[in-house]
User: Fold Efflux transporter, outer membrane factor (OMF) lipoprotein, NodT family from Chryseobacterium contaminans.
Amino acid sequence: MKRVNHKHILYGIAALSLVSCAVPKVADIKKAQTLPEMPAKTASSEEFQQLNLKAYFTDAHLLELFDKVVQANPDFQIAQQRVEIANSFLQRSKMDLLPSLEVGAEVTGNRYGKYTMEGVGNYDTNLSPNITEEQKINRDFTPNYWLGARSSWEIDAWGKLKNKKIAAQKKYLASTEGLRLLQVELFTDIANLYYQLVALDNRLAIYQKNYNLQQRAFEIVLAQREVGKATELAVQQFKAQNNNWLAEIEHIKVEIVTVEQAITTLTGSYGGEVKRGKTLMPTNMDVLNKTINVEAVIHARPDVAANYYVLEASQADAKAARAAFYPKIDLGAGIGMNSFSVETLFKPSSLAGQLLGGLMVPVFNKGQLKYEFKVASKEQEIAFLNYQKSITTAFNELQSILKQTRIYERVLKLKSEEVGFLDRGVEVSNDLYVTGYANYFELINSQKSKLTAELDLLQFQHQNTRNNVLLFKALGGNLN
Assistant:
């Protein structure tokens, strides 16, 4: 028999290994564009610290709604399950680095033909003087019993399994940040609906208060008509305006029902009244007067953090795809009791073992591996673009909200002064009408102007509140 030249085999394996080493390079993680600094209010401005949920939102009824959202909102519960799924993938990826172990039993049986190698071999074996009766083989039907354990292990020499574990870990972290982002968005939605409800209550109160004032003016006009100092036209104008305001009051009640329904849906409740306070959020001047480290704030946001974890996961996936070009090294072992008869299966001499080793080099499937690596590389580029986009969006959102908040402060001051002037104007118009120095048209206009100014002020207060709610999200939405 010709002797095998092991040196040639080793040379062949080495050559195949070198061929497999001609693999593409994984791109480094790109750095996002540098963010500009936000100017400090004063040279002595304090450094901004992360916001606390319960310190920022102090309305007890709103905080109670936050708790309900976490406990009962179906979208939040679904997101929690997705985090658990991501964690399961992570745990599975860790197990891939360890050897597998199987314990079990196998029973097979064969009937070999008379003119087969096995059939002839079994016949000769039974005629051998070197075997005992227990070692003779049943030629009519040859069973095979095995009871033991088997183990296999892929040696992660090139980091494929390690990078798959890293990718799973980063995806898990991204899912946890995604859960935090969903919670912040749910809190933002609830807060906006809650303060919309408060604004509607205040709007209703404004209409009711002005309607009562108008009723007093209407009584004056009726009295004036009785003595011939006012016309029927004035009476009809007042009645028309009264009906207009009454219709608005009813319409506001419809809006209140709609907003309450939206809140109960988000909190997983079957209808019911929403408990609420009476005041909108004031401007958080404490935040505006501090120096904000924009780099730290932006990267602490859950949407930005989640996109960065996805970027890291995509690079780990690309590294795992690259490692697939290298030879795959497998080790295997098995040990157990093996016999062709039940009687001898548990005898010490039936103990059998096996060691296996393999090195497989990809050759004809390298085209498929190249496509998979190309896909992984493009996924990494997409992940970076999403990461950069989230940073740009977060920065511009924060800048815009801070600027709007400062503008709203000035607007609210001017509108508050306007309401004060018009309050005095209504009193003056009533006095002038009674004394005959003003007509009913001026009286109606002063009432309408006062109502319009109060509604405008309320609208700006509501917009300012919405801005302050969004400011919490823009500054990172710390839920601790």
